[in-house]
Write a structure and sequence with these properties.
Elements: H1 5-8, H2 22-37, E1 43-44, H3 45-53, H4 63-75, E2 79-83, H5 91-96, E3 99-103, H6 105-114, H7 129-140, H8 142-145, H9 150-178, H10 181-186, H11 192-223, H12 226-242, H13 252-270, H14 279-305, H15 311-323, H16 328-338, H17 392-416, E4 421-423, H18 432-446, E5 452-454, E6 460-475, E7 478-489
């Protein structure tokens, strides 16, 4: 035996098994575990309370008791919490601190031990865009997989669930590590500047994977027919029932609830339900917040390191610049440049952009008006009572326009294809959007060892580059010269 800190430290996560009010704690943790098995990881206080009082045994259970029990389980590290500030509309709601709760890894292991199940295998925390791509490909197979036998359907179902579990576990562990106290302390050190750029690029690569795959997955899940899904569920249940088990008796109802619950959790993760934002959108926001925080810390560190600059030499340099001015007007311009007076006043607003593309500048978008309000304590905005505006139809219309635009772009690209390839030396005048797609295909192929890649539509292609020939690509907003390249699709390679 080797004595270590982990061996001799008290295991607070096990206190709920024999503490006062153990019956309440055990039932709450069982609720979290059953939802965890269905891939529903986060629960609100209201969700826990509703599932508790659903059993007649807890008919007299109060919401205040539920709040106290969740707080105690959080203190014992059985639950992880995160404050949900996404839809806070007042200071009072922010102070009330509406939390989401999640089982800790220790608690999952304890509950599985109590139920005599297999131990949880926790993989290293990372953000893998390939998981999203595999999930997208498996979701796209739903219309075809329903007609296969139960063995193939179960294999497909198992792969889909494993990728979804890994995606959730990996991003939760990785985001938790970035938000830990140790990471916060490291971000304030000079060593952080060394790998800051690598970390930001890693997070941005994951965000690109989200943008590229989540929309496709969401649209596929929305279009699935209930009959086809029920057909798949029945085959998965039949396969599970056909497995002989020595010490466990599973009913058809138990397996059906588990299978349907897993699919519903996956649907809620990518699509959302009852007007709530999906988990993919929350992950997108969290990742962007981390990037902004990293950038802010890096700027603060750079500014701190620059405080040792020689101010005397800087002032002498500024004085030399002013001495070179020919007249007072030029000196005024120089002053505005040096002291930042030429910079415009930036006004923040909740403007709705037509697109999130980084290739489109603000000058290309339509102008809009902003009403400025006095920044004084005595000012109170006059409010009017109004009904809640349902924005669902507007969102669906926006999504429909995006899909139509993407289809139109792919149609134009298909017109550029001749004999199974796209030769950049023979291209007509390109639109900016079509150019960006083609350049992205080139970039994806150059990152591969064999110069091959896959389009968003699933077509495989290979890049052929000439070392001696060049060509001029004509675009609506300008021309550029590049080595002659050809994109040859898989069926013609």
């Amino acid at each position: 035996m080797q004595v270590s800190d982990k061996l001799i430290k008290p295991l607070t996560e096990a206190k709920y098994l024999n503490a006062d009010n153990v019956s309440r704690y055990r039932c709450i943790m069982r609720i979290f575990f059953e939802n965890y098995e269905k891939l529903r990881y986060w629960l609100y206080q209201e969700d826990v309370y509703e599932q508790m009082i659903a059993d007649p045994f807890w008919a007299d259970y109060k919401i205040e008791q539920c709040q106290q029990d969740l707080a105690m389980l959080t203190e014992w590290k059985n639950l992880n919490t995160i404050q949900d500030t996404k839809k806070v509309s007042s200071i009072e709601e922010f102070k009330n601190k509406k939390y989401r709760y999640q089982m800790s890894e220790y608690s999952v292991e304890i509950e599985r031990l109590v139920l005599r199940l297999e131990n949880l295998l926790v993989e290293g925390a990372s953000l893998e865009p390939t998981l999203l791509e595999r999930i997208r490909r498996n979701v796209e197979k739903i219309p075809d997989i329903a007609v296969h036998d139960k063995d193939e359907v179960h294999t497909w179902w198992d792969d889909l669930n494993n990728d979804f579990v890994r995606l959730n576990q990996n991003y939760q562990d990785y985001i938790r590590d970035l938000n830990s106290v140790k990471s916060e302390e490291m971000m304030h050190t000079k060593e952080f500047l060394v790998f800051k750029d690598r970390l930001i690029e890693y997070l941005r690569s994951f965000i690109k994977g989200l943008q590229r795959n989540v929309g496709v997955i969401e649209e596929c899940l929305r279009q699935q027919e209930e009959n086809r899904l029920n057909q798949i569920f029945d085959k998965v249940v039949e396969y599970e029932l056909s497995i002989p088990r020595m010490d466990t008796v599973l009913t058809r109802q138990m397996i059906e609830q588990n299978v349907v619950g897993r699919y519903q959790s996956m649907y809620d993760w990518f699509v959302g339900s009852e007007g709530q934002e999906n988990e993919a959108g929350k992950l997108f926001d969290v990742t962007n917040d981390i990037i902004r925080r990293i950038t802010r810390y890096a700027a603060a560190l750079s500014e701190k390191n620059a405080l040792g600059a020689n101010r005397k030499e800087e002032y002498k340099k500024v004085a030399e610049l002013f001495m070179r001015c020919e007249d007072l007007s030029q000196a005024h311009k120089m002053s505005a440049m040096v002291f930042g007076m030429e910079k415009p006043f930036h006004v923040s607003a909740d403007s709705i952009r037509e697109t999130d593309s980084i290739n489109k500048g603000v000058y290309e978008e339509k102008p809009f008006c902003i009403d400025l309000k006095p920044r004084v304590r005595t000012y109170r905005e006059k409010t009017k009572r109004s009904s809640i505006v349902e924005a669902r139809e507007k969102k669906l219309e926006t999504r429909r326009k995006i899909i139509e635009r993407q289809k139109e772009e792919m149609r134009k690209i298909n017109e550029l294809e001749k004999d199974g390839m796209i030769d950049f030396a023979e291209l007509p005048v390109l639109e900016p959007g079509i150019r960006e797609i083609l350049l992205k295909w080139i970039s994806d192929a150059l990152e591969s060892a064999d110069f091959s890649a896959r389009t968003d539509g699933g077509r495989t292609y290979k890049l052929y580059k000439s070392d001696s020939e060049t060509c001029v690509v004509h675009c609506e907003d300008g021309n550029f010269t590049m080595p002659r390249m050809r994109l040859v699709f898989d069926e013609n390679v």
